[in-house]
């Protein structure tokens, strides 16, 4: 696909949220709270969000618009910003031609609001609504996306960023949400490839796009000043693409992964790898000179591509700034009790070039050849897809350790709903608190978490073609 210059489109995602604007909006909100609206104790009025089709100019202007599905028909979807601890209420109206549901990825939410069709709620039929209503316990970068026929609905654009603000705004000059995605577009028509169940995608690395974008823009560009400190909220919303990212003209620190602050900011000296569903919060200082450009660089096949360009059009401060203060921790970030923890084993099997000879599909043993005929390719512990019984039934408050063996030839991004986990590293150390673990072929890794959130929690590969063809299980906490 050719790449002529496309004028930068403005959208909600590219709005600058300065420290001053944030403080002002905070003041306005606290002033308002002295004057409650009459009748506010009555049935809450949910803000409506409508899942519907739309058309956006994704490809360069000489191509037609791309038909998408989006929240309120838009892409990128709305950026929802709320304060930590706030209650979030949205009435989802389904105007899609198929049933849907809405998952709040990474939010340690009550189970009934988790939005997993078939596990925590029924899919919302066309023309119907569902009220999502929950408190947001953690500050950080989260996102929301469809969770029924995800492999199609997320690929069509049904997602958006959920930003939960810390009580005291961190010391940055601006705050930018950068949603990274790839689209599989027909190079003639710029329309989405409608084969969401392609055998090759399901059996190999998932549905990968030929058109990579940030916030829906293939030439995402922001004007910045030298010396500016930006918070970049990176969200990998792709069905299967692993983003490997570097910086040029920027000095940066990773402040948080998957919404959860790191204990110490880690200066970025090597590429940041984000699997599908994963997020990273970076603080970056613009060090490129005025008149030059800095970049968020996508590294691929030994080459660098501009994922987002930062044009340096002014100078804010020439002095080098101090290492940023850590972000305040969220509640309940510890994972104690590793020694006595319940041990669970998860073998990931299948796929092309794999070792799976046979597995259980819908209660019956099938050969790999029979699985292929059913367009199913992956198994967890010898079973394809969801089972009647959970992978484990945990007591509330219990610590669990899951040892995961990726006995396949492909990477997988394992996402646990409802609770974050820490990786158990060699020597008993633990890694950062996360909700999605990217695992490469042949690896054995172990995660640990406190089962403190009751309910039925999905545990699946976030490469959505893999989830649709076998890589899904669940845990019960009671
Ligand atoms: Cu996978």
TrEMBL record:
Gene Ontology MF annotations: copper ion binding; oxidoreductase activity
InterPro entries: Cu-oxidase-like_N, Cu-oxidase_2nd, Cu-oxidase_C, Cu-oxidase_fam, Cu_oxidase_Cu_BS, Cupredoxin
Keyword Amino-acid biosynthesis among UniProt keywords: no
Alphabetic keyword roster: Metal-binding, Oxidoreductase
Ranges annotated as spanning the membrane: none
CDD domains, A to Z: CuRO_1_CumA_like
Name of the protein in question: Copper oxidase
Domain Plastocyanin-like: 57-167, 177-286, 372-477
